[in-house]
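User: Fold this; tokens only.

Assistant: Input:
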Amino acid sequence: MAYEMSSKQPILFFDGGCPLCNRVVTFILNHEKESKILFAALDTASTNELLRNHPSYKMDEDTVYFFDGKQLYSKSTAVLKLLAFLKGYLFVLRLGWLFPRGLRDTVYNFVAKRRKRIFKECTVDVRLAGRTL
């Protein structure tokens, strides 16, 4: 399925082989306001095709990316932008905006480098069917 970044549908790009990333996807599926977000593993043909059409987007396996329908965000900013699509009771997580991006991304990088050692079991949520690129 070809997807053009000019579309307004939000997309979360993540490491499909990462146990932590897949747990975060399950969390999002459990707490999103509406079923609007599409999901794309970074190592899929669809993502690679999308990147070929947009060479300015350089994606790294250790980074999560979020396209909100207008702009592509990475690392901690991607996570915080994604919160707008989740249910209101998660508003407390938006306090992350109070911290400077450099500090947020340092914490993000610390977790990202250790994520596969901390979380061992990688399960893909069956609800992703029909919601992937």
